[in-house]
Specification:
Layout (H helix, E strand, L loop, with lengths): L12 E9 L3 E9 L5 E9 L7 H14 L10 E7 L2 E7 L3 E3 H10 L6 H19 L21 E4 L4 E3 L28 H4 L6 H17 L9 H10 L15 H7 L11 H11 L5 H36 L13 H24 L32 E3 L3 E3 L26 H5 L5
Antiparallel strand pairs: 1-2, 2-3, 3-5, 4-5, 6-7, 7-8, 9-10
Helix pairs in contact: 3-5, 3-8
């Protein structure tokens, strides 16, 4: 298995694998480290550097963090923090072991099947619960945010291995009190899931998200897009001119037809007025599966995809832990790879001092001089930078019990007793700790 490991760190966050890349950002699974060996998996959403040249976009990205951080609900993935490192902006979110709804729909279609109706009902009910929380969100002073997601689609819904579905990506969400105003001349979101009023660039409210959730429900049930066409113009026309009673004319379970009909009304005054109202209607028409049932179904049909990602994460962790173990002393930034010849020459000089001292001790009472142990330079890491000592020699284990020293000529050589049989060990270290990989 080939693993590409990013060497770039963002403060305490260490990217492990890339999950996705979109028009706005790259998404990574990362490890967050801290004191006392603390570590956890998180998701980092890193903005493409070229976009940050636009001050308006930079502020819009910060808005995403400010808005999403105010939504606290089990069906919304929370933003933990926003960071800036080396001129780059990134969001940190909880890592949820999951698969996107769009990937589940496509996988079922590939098998010539559709998602079970009770599973779909559970997933969409979870999304509607998260939407209701977002629509009702207030700031810390209790003032309504007037938040609209504006990009509700199967791509922005994840189904966790715990059986709970969550809404993600408030990157283009619009709040009435938002610091950065969104350009009203630009359509934002995924065209095939937009409401008619969004396409017409009318003022939006929460009912636009309800329409989008209706299109998602249709796709999850049938396995096909509700609005499609050869090009964007055809898609636009199908949304704007679609007959309100379309659901009764297609292969949709009859108990769901009234729910879809109301969610997808052209006139928003005739739609469900809240996500909660939509939730209750769907729950009544098709009792949803339990979270336990969803978890069981997900593992049954998507175990390979989940295992593949887990293996990539574990492999990346192992590589990084192995690299950290081999580099017992941190690399000096900007250092060039030393010549192995010159490194060996420096070590040979030190070895001569040790041998000479040992010979003197032998002359005073020993029968023969002690044999010289084999020394070798520290291995060059993947960046081509030689790991070097900073204040005292470091011990690492290589193969069996062979001791390997790392020496830098620019650092004063520590005093070595001619009679000492023990090699100095770095403070707070042990050979077992240096070998330890907590993920194996």
């Amino acid at each position: 298995m080939s693993i590409e490991v990013s060497t770039r760190k963002f403060g305490p966050f260490e990217p492990l694998i890339e999950l996705a890349s979109g028009g706005m950002a790259k998404i990574f699974v990362a490890r967050r480290t801290g004191v006392a060996g603390f570590e956890r998996l998180v998701v980092i959403k890193r903005v493409h550097p070229h976009l940050l040249e636009d001050p308006a976009f930079r502020e819009m990205f910060r808005d995403e963090a400010r808005v999403a951080a105010l939504i606290h609900h089990p069906n919304v993935v929370p933003v933990l923090e926003v960071g800036e490192e080396g001129g780059e902006l990134f969001l940190v979110l909880d890592y949820v072991e999951s698969l996107s709804l769009v990937s589940l729909i496509r996988s079922a279609k590939h098998r010539g099947a559709t998602l079970p109706l009770p599973i779909v009902s559970r997933i969409v009910c979870d999304v509607l619960a998260g939407l209701q929380a977002a629509h009702d969100a207030t700031d810390m002073r209790g003032e309504p945010l007037g938040l609209i997601h504006r990009d509700v689609s199967p791509h922005n819904v994840i189904v966790g291995v715990d059986g709970t579905s969550r809404l993600i990506d408030f990157g283009i969400a619009k709040a009435a009190a938002k610091i950065t105003s969104t350009d009203s001349k630009v359509l934002k979101g995924k065209l095939r899931y937009m409401s008619p009023e969004q396409i017409k660039k009318k003022s939006l409210d929460r009912r636009s998200d309800i329409f989008s959730a209706g299109t998602m429900l249709f796709e999850a049930i049938t396995g096909r897009l509700l609005f499609d066409g050869e090009n964007d113009a055809e898609v636009l026309m199908s949304i704007l001119l679609e007959d309100d009673s379309f659901a009764s004319a297609v292969d949709v379970p009859k108990e769901i037809v009234p729910v879809l009909d109301k969610a997808l009304r052209q006139d928003r005054e005739q739609r469900f007025q809240t996500a909660l109202e939509f939730h209750e209607a769907l729950e009544s028409a098709c009792p949803p599966a339990t979270a336990r049932d969803v978890a069981k179904w997900l593992l049954q049909h998507s175990a390979n995809a989940l295992s593949a990602r887990r293996e990539r994460i574990q492999a990346s962790l192992s590589l990084k832990d192995s690299d950290a173990t081999s580099q017992t002393i941190v690399d000096i930034p900007g250092a060039k790879a030393r010549s192995r010849v010159s490194a060996l020459a420096r070590i040979a000089g030190i070895a001569f001092v040790v041998v000479a001292g040992g010979g003197l001790a032998y002359g005073l009472g020993a029968r023969r001089a002690p044999s010289i142990e084999t020394f070798s330079t520290h291995p060059v890491d993947s960046t081509g930078v030689l790991g070097v000592a900073t204040s005292e020699p470091a011990l690492v284990t290589k193969g069996s019990a062979e001791l390997v020293w790392t020496i830098d000529a620019s650092v004063p050589i520590p005093t070595i007793s001619a009679t000492s049989r023990e090699r100095p060990v770095p403070r707070n270290s042990s050979k077992s700790e240096l070998r330890r990989n907590p993920y194996q």
